[in-house]
Prior knowledge:
By secondary structure, the protein is of the alpha+beta class. Helices cover about 30% and strands about 15% of the residues. This is sphinganine-1-phosphate aldolase.
Amino acid sequence: MRIRHVPVKSNQRVDIKRMREAISRSTCVLVGSAPNFPTGSIDDIEAIAQLGKEFDIPVHVDACLGGFLIPFMEEAGYKIPLFDFRLDGVTSISCDVHKYGYSPKGSSVILYRKPEYLHHQYMCFSDWTGGIYATPTFAGSRCGLAISLAWATLLHYGRSGYIQRTKEIIECARHISSAVESDIDGLRLLGSPDVSVVAFTSDSFNIYALIDDMTALGWNLNSLQNPAGKVLLAS
């Protein structure tokens, strides 16, 4: 398989026109982010799903970062564009339980619209000397502890708990993004902080110098490149 990277617009969302142009008769899947990690911008999943329907191509939504936030944003009082199986063209969604699901690392989920897609995930090797070897995932033997801890975490928080945490996180992220945009001279936002990520840069000073100074004060920040910037995740 060969990956074709599609450029993003100034708002850091994928350019749908360029995605359409990148489609060929060999294209096997279209992917959109909800949101992306660098800037927290959510791609136009509805438009990508429409492309998938038009060209009969499966559409995967990478919600690994936002999978336990964006499903609860509407109930927490925030408008959010459709990104899930309510869109006919969406065929699979991935999300990490160890991020905003708050379980220990090692647990992720992939959801399929139809069982037929799941069947393509199976791997079967019939020539192994130990007999027929089959596994439903890329990994063979796995520890069940991560699955048990993820399930216990889901039961602990419950739907109401995730809605409340989502509300607090989105409020925090939007407070920070508003301050960056309006109250702090020399900084500007990168992309659109749709969920929990706030990314910013500067046109007037070295943003990496600011990151170094904040790190010395005890902040734990992630740096960006192309363009240079800094990303903060509310949690």
